[in-house]
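Hey, quick one: can you model this chain's 3D structure?
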Amino acid sequence: MDPPHSEQQFRARSLSDAGLAQFLKRQDWPPSKLQLRDLYAVALYFSPDLDVARAHLRTAQAAIVTASTRPNPSLAIGGGYTNAPESPVVFYFTPSMILETGGKRVLRTLAAAKLAEAARVEVDATEWRVFSRIRAAWINYAMALRSVDVLNDEIAARNEAIAILNKRLAVGEIGRPEVETARAGLIAVQVEARAAATAVGEAEANLAAATGLPALPAVDTATLPETLADLPMAGVQTAGLLHRADVRRSLLEYAAEEAALQLEIAKQRPDIQLSPGYNFDEGHHKITFGPGFEIPVFNRNKGPIAEAEARRLEAEARFNALQAEAIGEMEAALARYKGARTELNDADRTLAAIGKSRLAAMQRAVDAGEEDRLSLANLKVENAVAARARLEAERRLQGAFGALDDAVQQPLEPGTPLPDVMSKVPAPTTTPETKK
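Sure thing. Here's the predicted structure for all 436 residues.
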């Protein structure tokens, strides 16, 4: 995989600098192992979704130029011949200029600017979706690798216990059902281990696809993302509603519809057309003055105003529905995260109750002849089962934390639990009040 040719080229393809800093500072390209932020930066560079979002942003920005353009003046020139005895020449010269009234050009520009800002926010939303996909695929890959190791440890512990049971069966100390029960448990774990090995390949392919690479290079999965111990519900809701790209985009779309409504109201004021003219006809010089304008007698633009008002109400309804959906999503994500945190704490306590110290104490007891080897093997199995339960709790916690990130659309890192988002809130737009 070739790196971008320059930092400027990389930045030209991505509007987010925060996630690229570590990648741009790398001197050892290609790195021996890619970390999560490296994969994110690579995905931003190769993402076709971001290319589409940026293209839409350029189109929306070009619409501002169209909306802010003044109408061009026009000019009519003509001449002819007549048989009048005073002069055989006829000539006229008529310029024309339209003067827009009611601030129509300002309102058109405002509506286009709000839509362009909404398109820029959609680029941010697309970048977040790229990051979310990368994080989820990376977590699945890291957890799949850990699952294989944990299950292999459990298989080794169960094999050790079964070997002891077989020796006891051979001398008649135990019955065959006890051995068969242990073998059934081993077979179940072996099946899970084979499924986990298959999941590693699938997770690797999914991570490569999310990154946009044909094959996944070496990835550093040693350290999982840190999670927060606790989060206040009110703080999460406030940060999410102020920072979520879809909420901000919906608010900007409402502002654009409001400007469009004000524009239709302003069209009730007719534009003025200035058409001074000069005519040379039959030897006479004729100069005319006077404005021209539409007389709003039969049509007061009520239809377009009603349509624009309905679109504004529709945008308002969409915003309210999206806001309620966002609040529900954040509440569910936070409840899921708190539950997963409790499960992980319980799993940690269970694993600590067995722990290395208890295993070491059991080993000393076996060496001293106070305990048999089967008790030690069973304790190893118990420890492996607890480690597997702890890994599943960690998987659920990481998934819940990712869902909470998605609900707020901001990485919630320890030390900065809630983002400072006030500067990113769209400023309220004031438009001239015009009566219908």
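One thing worth noting: The first strand starts at residue 74 and ends at 81.
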